[in-house]
Each structure stands twice: as structure tokens, then as C-alpha cells.
Task: structure prediction
Amino acid sequence: MLEARGFALVHDLHVEEAHRRRGVARALMGALEDRARTLGAPGVLLDTGTTDSFAAARGLYRSLGYREIGGVYLGGWSDPDNAGIHYVDTLRQWRKRF
Result:
């Protein structure tokens, strides 16, 4: 399990569109939280995009008890299929303490 400052860290959670709205992400997050508790983590950290396309994810995390912390920050990533192509996204960080 990845960790940041002792917290379990969700790097990416993606459910294919055909399988959304069936509780898959909720079940995955529940399993991750159970494991994090077992390992003694004080909670979970994650981030989401700030655009409308991430509204459902933000709603899910809110419903699971996550709270936004801090302001918007920039996160970068490289396209694994196109060497030398890099992107920057605006992100918000979320935290849930146990």
C-alpha cells in the first residue's frame, strides 16, 4: 500500500464506464480503508481533478466521509504511450481520518 505522511494513499481509482453506478468504487474504497486500518494508518489521502468530469468522484468521496484539505494545486503526469508528452492538471486533495 502506498503511504504519505503515514496515511494510506490512493493514487488512482478508475471504474470503467460500463461498470459505474453499481457500487464498485465504493466497495474498492471500503476494502482499501479496511486494509489501511489493519496496517495502523490514521486515515486515507487522495486527490481528484477540479473539472466537471470529476464531479461524480468528488460526490462519492464526500459521501464516504472525505473532506477537502488545502486549495487547488497542480499535478503533472506523463503520457505512457507518447514519450516526451507531459500534462498538468488542477487537483484538490482529500483526507479521511479514522
User: Anything to note?
Assistant: The mean pLDDT is 94.
